[in-house]
Amino acid sequence: MTAAETPPVFDEAFRERFVTLLEWRRDVRRFRPDAVAPDLIDRLLHLAVLAPSVGNSQPWRFVMVDDPARRAAIRASFEECNTEALNAYHGDRAQQYAALKLAGMDIAPVQMAVYCDTVPREGGGLGRRTMPETLQHSVAAAVQTLALAARAWGLGVGIVTILEPRVVSRVLEVPEDWAFVGYLCIGWPEEEHRDPELVRYGWQDRLPFDRFVFRR
């Protein structure tokens, strides 16, 4: 057995900076075309997989999408799904939706699809027999960790979910037992704001904290 390490001390200054990181983490859709060094992306992915996972199963699968033809096919899926979504709204809400920028797929230099392996060998099934959805919860934690890490390095991450999962999986030729979680666009943000874009453009305000806390 190895000797216990001395745990780090996270002081008040660190905690304040951590709060700032959380407040400034945004779902970015407006990117500059400047390249991002591959070793920086690797570093962010190394941090992402430090996220917790049910049974330590580590079900996250990151598929880098570099091929222009595959990117174009996924972009076409977004266009089709986005049109269908727009048609579901009416009046002012439809105008609001049409004005939103919902993807940065044309500019973002780094793009990846994130999947959940629904039958990972790792973890031995611990913790997920009654709640198999915890595998996808684990992947969501990795995506959030990646987004926070990216922000710490000045990068922005946008999560595109207005896509047909079966189309994306077919384009990327992934195993059938991988579940699509989201499509990430990563790059240097064109602009930075403390408030979310959906708040700034009047789609949905932040709700007060006490709306989400219940006591029994």
What's this model, at a glance?
By secondary structure, the chain is α+β, with helices and mostly antiparallel strands. The protein has helices at 12-24, 38-48, 68-87, 91-99, 134-152, 165-172, 197-200, and strands at 60-64, 110-117, 156-160, 178-187. The radius of gyration is 19 Å and the shape is globular.
Q: Tell me about the biggest sheet?
A: 4 strands, antiparallel
What is the helix fraction of residues, given as a range?
25-40%
H/E element order? HHEHHEHEHEH
| Share of residues in strands | 5-15%
Q: Mind telling me the C-alpha Rg?
A: 19 Å
Highlighted features:
four-stranded antiparallel beta sheet, single chain, globular, 216 residues, 4 strands, 13% strand, alpha+beta, 7 helices
Describe what you observe in this structure:
The chain is built from 7 helices and 4 strands, in the order ααβααβαβαβα. The protein is of the alpha+beta class. Helix 2 crosses helix 5 and helix 3 runs antiparallel to helix 6. The radius of gyration is 19 Å and the shape is globular.
Secondary structure: elements and pairs:
Layout: H1 12-24, H2 38-48, E1 60-64, H3 68-87, H4 91-99, E2 110-117, H5 134-152, E3 156-160, H6 165-172, E4 178-187, H7 197-200
Antiparallel strand pairs: 1-2, 2-4, 3-4
Helix pairs in contact: 2-5, 3-6
